Model the fold of this input.
Amino acid sequence: MIAGHFGLAAGVKSVEPEAPLWALMLATAFLDVVFVPLYLLGIERIDPVPGTRGGYGQGIIHADYTHSLVGALVLAALFGLVVAIRWGRRVAVVLGAVVFSHWVLDLIVHRGDMPILPGNLGGLPRLGFGLWQVPTASAALELAIVLAGAYLYWRSARRAARDAADVHEGRAHLVAGVLLAAGLATLALDLSS
Ligand SMILES: [Zn+2]
Done:
């Protein structure tokens, strides 16, 4: 799930316009951003599901720190703390929640590979509802989130621009269009991988 996370961030922008869009996009992908260096260091890894090429939704993801329940909460809190310095408490809470929303959306699609404690301490049961086992369903879910997010974003931007100059309205349409196109492109890339 990549496109779905960005769709959600676009939707949140419509209810919390004070949160900068780039910060929302960074927040929604933050667990995966932290995953990258850990992946390169060999601490976290992705194994293809046995008998598959490891394409869209065909991975067992051992992101045992970034995608553990407690790890995600810690990363969300850290993100919120840094944000609070600059944009205040309300935006910090929203952005922290967006960071954690990544874990919730991943929980729907991951195949029971998300631990509760970092490093799967104590060997507790791993979580994940495994919607990736039905790629059409998970792709449809991502598409729905992208469309809903782009629509909400466009609607609120248009409302905000109603009293402002036409140039702003044009910009809102443009940004919503770019968001939608980017979301769809990400999903298409994801599916074809
Ligand atoms: Zn993830």
